[in-house]
Write a structure and sequence with these properties.
Length: about 100
Amino acid sequence: MNWRIALTALFFVLVFYAPAYAGKDTACHPPYQPTNIIKLVLNYSATLDYIADAPEQCQKPFQRDVTKLVQSTWLFSQGCKDVTFEDFDKAEQKRNEKSASKQGS
């Protein structure tokens, strides 16, 4: 008899709560895995778009990895690195402006 109650309770939990989680897509889909600087150079605009538009739980780790990649490369001069970081900051500022306008609406 107890197993019927437990099975019924499990059924109701799955029926009523599972659809709430099914609609949320928490998978991240970055434009590439930031493992080398050549990928960043070839996908520069996609990188900036992802920083500006991706879900925050995806954007933050991606931006951190890309920033470390740029900091550690010897292929970029310091001036080039500075411009790249400015572009990252502008993309993040664009992101913040979008979220502020959504909250204001």
